[in-house]
Amino acid sequence: MKRVYNFSAGPSMLPLEVLQRAAAEMTDARGTGQSVMEMSHRSKDFKPIIDHAEAMLRKLMGIPNNYKVLFLQGGASLQFAMVPLNLAPPVDGKKRKATYVDTGIWASKAAEEASKYVEVRVAASSKDRAYTYIPAAPAPDPEDAYYHITLNNTIVGTRWTTLPDTGNVPLVADISSCILSEPLDVSRFGVLYAGAQKNLGPAGVTVVIVREDLIQKVPDWVPTMLRYEIHAKEGSMYNTPPCYGIYMIGLVLDWMEAQGGLEVIYKRNQEKAALLYNYLDSSSFFRSPVEKRDRSLMNVPFVHGDPDVEARFVQEAAAAGLVNLAGHRLVGGMRASIYNAMPIEGVQALIDFMKEFEAKNRGH
Question: What is the CATH number of domain 16-258?
Answer without folding.
Answer: 3.40.640.10
